[in-house]
Structure formats: structure tokens, C-alpha cells
Design a protein that fits this description.
22 strands, 5-stranded mixed sheet, about 525 residues, disordered N terminus, alpha+beta
Length: about 525
């Protein structure tokens, strides 16, 4: 004859194996108990216990861990490891007096009732639960313990390599809305944005993330292709970060102008309105150091734009006539302390509209405009009309000219054109076969050339060269005019002494006194 314990065991098996209605299950239980020939007084008690067993199997009560995960869905799981600054809660089932909230100190050791000190530094929530359960096992019978994360510490991240502001960053975790807000861990891209973006020579195809498992041991190196992330939106490359992660952005082996421009207009790069200090040297009007920002430097109106090579050239006064815009060189410092040198072809920008040639600058760049070995007359007008050429240059035309003095002419004006801009020769007194060209050099010297004029020639360095800013053109008087002036001086010396010289002739006299030219006596 079956005992009561056997009946309960059989009832439990019945609940698990059979899908019966509530009334049918109750009748079956009562039938088993009656057949057991037990006292009638305990039949209702056994029936109730059996039903409780069935309900416990079919509809089990949630554990503390299950209740906690329902109340706080933001608990970090997986690879998140605990450390100093985290706030956790330790729940011991049926022992609320031993449960409580704890803030993990810097060393990762917390003090728990009955067991004292226990280290959970570098452990996941699951590992911490196991460690605390094992510690309570000698003092509690089958301890049921749940560890949950209440508030996370800021993540300390190190970023180095080709970023605009390398260094250590403390990034707090952002929380969402609601009574129990979720927690958003920072990602790889967000950390790079905090470091003010990558430089123009960053190799974003090989971004390295170095992570130590549990904060100890040799770091694991993970490589991510952020170029693929930009092109296709592959979010798997934008990994969430953990405390202690180190990000390294390597230097690209070579400069790709098209890719550099796409990176520069993305959130991986600094804002376009951020100022960059660069140097511009070579064949520009005012070589030196300049602060370049987006917008048109020739306009007072603030407009959107990118800090490019042509904007820097505009700030430097524009190109000189001898500039070689096909071989403009950019020298860019790297994070390792060396330089990466590459060339841009601004003629390609003018000819085909290749905007990639007008590369976006970064802080510390040096732009070098070389001197052209040969000037193509067909390209002169196109370069003169470009936005990065100066609108006007100034030079002095003195001597026997109709309007001697300061003359303002367009960029890339020839000698013949400059003479015409000054009104042309004084026909009765000028020596029309040649003029003298004085040029102030950058080394402080003055070069002097006699140019044999030929108005039928185009741009020609021998007979019709391009004039430069601050050039002085001296038109001498003819031999006949010299004889007439000498005779007049002899016949009327007082009138010659009282005559007020014109501006051009005054400059001519000054040059004669300095020994730069020799006027006939």
C-alpha cells in the first residue's frame, strides 16, 4: 500500500507529464489518496499539498535574480567587469538583513556580513555571484545570491596615434529616460570624437583596440576597419568600450586625397570651423604663418567652407606669376614626430574641377609653392582669374611716361601691358627701344635688367616678362630729349632749379642718387 510521500512524488510526476485541467487533476489526486487507505482527516491536507506542488512546477516563482532583471533591465552583463566606483547590490534570498548596496572601492574589495572581505575586482556579474556564493557556502545552507549592477563608474580610455588630441579620457556612461533608465556604453567612434577626431593622415582601416581581460595580463589587440564603417555603415566595427581600453590610430603609409576628404567631412574629423595654424612659403605675395578657417577669405561675410590649401594661399596674398601650381607641396607632421610629404595639383583643380586636389588642411601643415621652370602663356590667364591669385599688384612706372607713378594692374600682367596701363610713352621724349626693370629680391638685394622692347611678342622673359608686385619700370629719355634738356639748362638755369619735379621724376632722381640707375648729365 503506497505511503503519503510516494503519493506526493507520484502527484508531482503527474503534474509534469500530463496536461490536464484543474478539476481533472484534483480528482486524480483525491483518488490516489483514497486508495491509499489513509485517515480521512489528512486527505484534504495531502490534497492541498499536492496542488501546491503542481502549481510550483507549472508556475514557478521567479527567483531574486529574475525579479531584479525585470526591475532593472539596464544591468550590464557579458564582458563588463566590475571595478572601483561601481555601485552594486547583493541580494541573499530570504535573508534581507544580510542584503544591501555596496560601492566598490578602488582596490575592488568589499565587506560583506558574516564573511568579511572579498575581492570582486575585474569580475563579471556572474563571476562575482559565484565568488560570493562560494564565500557564503560555509556559513549558509544552499545560499541563493544575486549580484546586480546599480550604477556604473566612468570608463577611463586612452587614445593615441593620429588623433588631434591624444591622451586619457574619462567617459561617463549615458543613461536614457524613464523610471529605470537604460545605460549606454561609449563606442569606439564616440571616443575618437572626444579626442577631436582623426588627423588627415590617419589609417582608419587598421584602428587598434587593446583590452586586458579582467584588467590583468597581456592585452588582447583587436583591429577594426572604420573606413568600411563610413562606407557601408557596418556597425560591427563600432564596438562598445570597456574600462581600461586603449585605442591606437596608426599613420597611413601614403596620402589618398579622395579618402582624406571624405574622412574630413565625417564626424571622425574635427569641425570644419575649427581654426588651423599653417605656414605658406614660396611663390606667394606674403609668405608666413596663417590661421586658416572655413569660408571665403576674400569676403567679409562669414560663410561655411573647409580650411583648404587655396584658402591658405588667399591669406598669403595669392600666387606670384612664377608659381608652379602643378607641384604644390604639403608637409604634414605625424604623431611619431616625422613628416609626411605629398603634392597637390591645383592646375587639375582649375582644368577639371578636381576638388580633391584642394586638400583640407590640418594644424601644423606647411604649404610650399615652388617656382615654375617654364611658364605656359596659355595658362597665365586661367591662373590669374583663379580665386587663389591676387586680384591686383602694384608697381612704379617712372621716367618718360604719360602717367608716371604708382600703377595698379591685374595679376600676371606683362611689361608691355604695364607700360600701356601707365598711359604709354611720352612720345616726344621717351626712349622706346628699351626700358629698365628694377626688382626687389627677398634677400634684400635689387636686380637690374635692361629689357629690349618688342610689342609684337607675347609673354617672353627676354622681351616681355611678367611683372611682379613692387617692380619699378624706368623709361629713359631719348638722346634728343637729353640734348634739349641740357641746352635749356644752360640757357635758363634758374627755371630748371625752381621747377617742381613730378612724382615719377622724383623717384627717378632718387634711384640715380642711390646708384641704382645712371641718368645722363
Amino acid at each position: 500500500m503506497p505511503c503519503a510521500l510516494c503519493l506526493l512524488h507520484r502527484t508531482h510526476s503527474l503534474a509534469v507529464s500530463c496536461q490536464l485541467g484543474y478539476i481533472k487533476i484534483t480528482k486524480q489526486i483525491t483518488l490516489y489518496i483514497v486508495n491509499a487507505s489513509l485517515p480521512r482527516k489528512i486527505i484534504p491536507i495531502l490534497t492541498g499539498l499536492s496542488l501546491l506542488a503542481i502549481i510550483g512546477v507549472v508556475y514557478p516563482q521567479p527567483t531574486v535574480a529574475q525579479r531584479q532583471s525585470t526591475q532593472n533591465p539596464s544591468n550590464a552583463t557579458g564582458t563588463y567587469t566590475l571595478g572601483g566606483g561601481d555601485n552594486i547590490r547583493v541580494d541573499i534570498f530570504d535573508l534581507p538583513q544580510l542584503s544591501g548596496n555596496y560601492q566598490i572601492p578602488a582596490g575592488g574589495v568589499i565587506q560583506l556580513p558574516l564573511i568579511g572581505s572579498i575581492s570582486i575586482q575585474g569580475l563579471t556579474l556572474e563571476e562575482a555571484t559565484t565568488a560570493i556564493s562560494n564565500a557564503y557556502a560555509p556559513v549558509l545552507k544552499r545560499p541563493q545570491i544575486t549580484v546586480s549592477l546599480q550604477a556604473t563608474r566612468p570608463l577611463n580610455i586612452w587614445i593615441s596615434g593620429e588623433v588631434n588630441r591624444p591622451g586619457s579620457y574619462s567617459i561617463p556612461l549615458s543613461s536614457g529616460a524613464g523610471n529605470v533608465p537604460s545605460v549606454q556604453f561609449p563606442t569606439l567612434v564616440q571616443a575618437i570624437e572626444r579626442a577631436q577626431g582623426v588627423t588627415q593622415i590617419a589609417d582608419i582601416r587598421r584602428v587598434e583596440l587593446r583590452r586586458r581581460a579582467g584588467g590583468v595580463g597581456e592585452p588582447q589587440v583587436l583591429t577594426f576597419d572604420l573606413w568600411k564603417y563610413l562606407q557601408t555603415g557596418t556597425v560591427s566595427a563600432d564596438i562598445t568600450l570597456r574600462d581600461g581600453d586603449a585605442i591606437f590610430i596608426p599613420t597611413a603609409a601614403a596620402m589618398n586625397l579622395a579618402e582624406a576628404r571624405q574622412i574630413a567631412i565625417s564626424t571622425l574629423a574635427p569641425a570644419s570651423n575649427q581654426a588651423r595654424t599653417v605656414a605658406v612659403v614660396g611663390e606667394v605675395i606674403r609668405p608666413g604663418r596663417y590661421v586658416v578657417v572655413g569660408g571665403d577669405t576674400l569676403s567679409a561675410q562669414s560663410v561655411q567652407g573647409l580650411p583648404t590649401v587655396t584658402r591658405a594661399i588667399q591669406l598669403a596674398g595669392g600666387l606670384k606669376a612664377q608659381a608652379d601650381i602643378r607641384q604644390v607641396q604639403v608637409r604634414r607632421p605625424t604623431s611619431a614626430g616625422s613628416e609626411q610629404i605629398f603634392s597637390v595639383n591645383l592646375w587639375q583643380l582649375l582644368e577639371s574641377g578636381d576638388v580633391n586636389q584642394d586638400t583640407i588642411l590640418q594644424d601644423g601643415d606647411t604649404i610650399i609653392i615652388p617656382t615654375a621652370t617654364e611658364i605656359n602663356p596659355a595658362e597665365i590667364s586661367a591662373i590669374a582669374d583663379a580665386s587663389f591669385s591676387p586680384a591686383k599688384i602694384q608697381l612704379n612706372v617712372v621716367g618718360e611716361i604719360v602717367r608716371p607713378g604708382l600703377v595698379e594692374v591685374p595679376t600676371n600682367t606683362t611689361l608691355n601691358q604695364a607700360l600701356m596701363a601707365a598711359g604709354g610713352f611720352n612720345s616726344s621724349r621717351a626712349k622706346k627701344s628699351s626700358v629698365e626693370l628694377l626688382r626687389l629680391n627677398f634677400d634684400g638685394t635689387v636686380s637690374r635688367r635692361i629689357i629690349q622692347l618688342d610689342f609684337t611678342q607675347g609673354i617672353n622673359e627676354q622681351t616681355n616678362p611678367l611683372v611682379r608686385n613692387k617692380d619699378i619700370i624706368v623709361v629713359r629719355r631719348s638722346a634728343t630729349a637729353g640734348v634739349v634738356d641740357t641746352v635749356n639748362l644752360i640757357l635758363n638755369p634758374t627755371a630748371a632749379l625752381l621747377a617742381v619735379p613730378s612724382t615719377g621724376n622724383a623717384l627717378l632722381s632718387l634711384l640715380n642718387n642711390l646708384g641704382l640707375i645712371r641718368l645722363p648729365k
